[in-house]
Write a structure and sequence with these properties.
- This protein is α/β, with parallel strands linked by helices.
- The chain folds into 2 domains: about 5-170 and about 385-390, Rossmann fold (3-Layer(aba) Sandwich), CATH 3.40.50; about 185-340, Phosphoglycerate kinase, N-terminal domain (Rossmann fold).
- Helices cover about 35% and strands about 15% of the residues.
- The protein is built from 14 helices and 15 strands.
- Strands 3-4-2-1-5-6 form a 6-stranded parallel beta sheet, with helices on both faces.
- It is elongated.
- The relative contact order is 0.13.
- The structure holds adenosine monophosphate.
- Adenosine monophosphate binds near residues 196, 317 and 321.
Amino acid sequence: MNSIDQVDISGKRVLMRVDFNVPVDAGGNVTDTTRIKAHLRTIRYCMEKGAKLVLISHMGRPKGQRVDKLTLKPCAAILSGLLGKEVPFVDDCVGEKAQKAVDAMKPGDVILLENLRFHIGDEKNDPDFARQLAGLADVYIDDAFAVAHRKAASNSAITEAVKACAAGFLLKDEIDYFNRAMKDPQRPLAAIIGGAKVSDKIGVLENLVDTVNMLIIGGGMAFTFLRAMGKEIGRSICEPDMLDKAKSIMEKAGSKNVRILLPVDCVVADKAEAGASVNTCSVDSIPADWMGLDIGPATQKIFGDAVREAKTIVWNGPMGMFELEPFSKGTFGLARDVAASGALSIIGGGDTDSAVHKAGVSDKISYISTGGGAFLELLEGKTMPAVDALERCGG
Ligand code: AMP
């Protein structure tokens, strides 16, 4: 896959797919600018090279209709502030208005076009819509990793309609870090998987058991595994439909010499609330009417030791209901252990991202992915349609 620094963009019209799908409050204010900031490196590079940069993104799910509250307009104001340069907003992404705005651009200018999904052609991966977008570009750049697992006209069909294309720095970094961790890792390679349910991540677990040296399982999903081992887990979250899958993952791990680490103790409570009665017990003595909501101290030590042994770590999903203080210690403790491990560490997913920030160690993680669903699909061993499209077009 070519990256943006391998194509000539000087003085050219560069159409760049970004992910500005940011949270906006009822008053139309952007409440978290992280997603915009993630593209600044690629945006600034285009400006320095004297490109005419045309940004395209989706926001929400308007399903082909113009929905006022899903306008990208507030993002143009935020970006103007971040760049210290006015970023004009154009209230359509194709057609006459867009064409006129692009024709008026000078080298170094940046404009933002309106939400792609106000046209149904984007999510339909419609070649006609892709050709309309491509008409605005000399070079197409894809920097939107977070949507790279879903085919759309703005990341797939468009690559067949433009003369040149490449990945932006964000998309490139995401794929490069992932490949370093999973394709040719320094071993031992440890994967930490947590979160509520086995069913959400069964594909991930099945793929990881073929790849990693250590599979560390925490969070709610660990209780389905413990149940599959015959343990009494009280009222802890459990998916009876997944018991056979959990068993087969443990058997496969055994046959492939992959170490599976499961909790040996847990923090239990009478209810999943901050003010609940809380205790710690072995996973062999969970009271019948209580539920496990975090890993316990003995497990923290075992998981911490494993992480210190690892040379490469990938992590998705919290170790407990970490949003509530009494059940947050396991996740925050593990975040500190991963940060201090010295291993190449890659994390993905909104909760894990938030946990390493709250634990104050985000700057010690090698790479924090910007894609929740896209990161999980990479962990499942799937290829990204948008990346395939870039590669096919020679980008
Ligand atoms: P996921 O989106 O699958 O990564 O799941 C994240 C959610 O799992 C968080 O909101 C946690 O509160 C929740 N979670 C983690 N551990 C547990 C647990 N032991 N019981 C219930 N929910 C949990």
